[in-house]
Target: Radical SAM/SPASM domain protein, ACGX system
Amino acid sequence: MKPYFSFQWHITDECDQRCKHCYIFAENTQKCPDHMSREQMTAVLDNCLDFCENYGRQPYFYLTGGDPILHPDFWTLLAMFKEKEIPFTIMGNPFHLTEDVCRRMKECGCVRYQMSIDGMEKTHDWFRKPGSFHTTLEKVGMLNAAGIRSIIMTTVSGKNIDEVPHIIDAVVAAGTKVYAFARYCPTSDEAGAKMAHPAPAPALGHPCPSRENSISPERYHKLLEDCDNIFRKYEAAGCETYFNRKDHLWTLLDYEKGRFQIPADAEPEMIYGGCNCGNGHLTILPTGEVFACRRVQNSRVGNVFTDRLAKLWTGRMEDYREYDKFQKCSKCKLLAWCRGCPAVASSTSGGNFYAADPQCWAEQIDGLLAV
Model:
């Protein structure tokens, strides 16, 4: 069976929310939302299939936006996926999900549907919009009943990190099939200011109160340890939620705990895991712009309307595979399995993809970093 290659495909910027940590509207709340035409989506699909044919891969799409359901040709695109038997995940909002919509998505081949919970009710609704917290949890059961695996994702920042254990309890109680979290990537100083603490909520029309958004390595290490304990207790109790340890710093924690060992037969120049940027993933925006990773703001490598993706992969994408350039990871024994999150490193270092992950604590582990 051919290995999968994932395309994160943003077909529209249209959305019912204006989240304070959104990449699309973080720096321009008056932005006119972009979206692809039906003809453009057909061309993009052909380009992606050409890529997979060229490299012997199977396509897997993460369809998103904005909220992809709001695209006028959403169902037309899903019919294309169904015709070509292409599996896909949708990353969207809960607001337009009905039993009929979920049934139709499942019939078209939707495997998973990802929504977000970014805090308990007060915090989450401040980030997104009033009522979003309860609506999101309510739709979990509807997705499950349709045979679509429900996913809840949390964007962790200094503003909600203390609430993550409570979020885990809430999503498990709702019957969520998969839970994961990733760290917030600031898009600019302005975007960072918007991530201010939600209590008390700012008055309408007033700027958000400012507060430092950074998370220390020690605090993030504690979060992973706390969550690891929670996950293991739920798993031992037979919980049906799968806890996706998505952040690559989980590998660092597993190494520290003795649960991960570097294989004796590992080849020095091989990359076995870790960050997928440059390895098995591309992002396509509604404008056609192609990014190595959507979370790496300066990672544009071309345009899907004018460039052949198969050519980009061995062209500008090479800039993201120079592993000896990682300032810290290149000195680490876990280089081939971790590399932290270059998106977080880039967004906190002024745009340097190869900068040190600000939450990595590898130097605190004896013998892990080369002197």
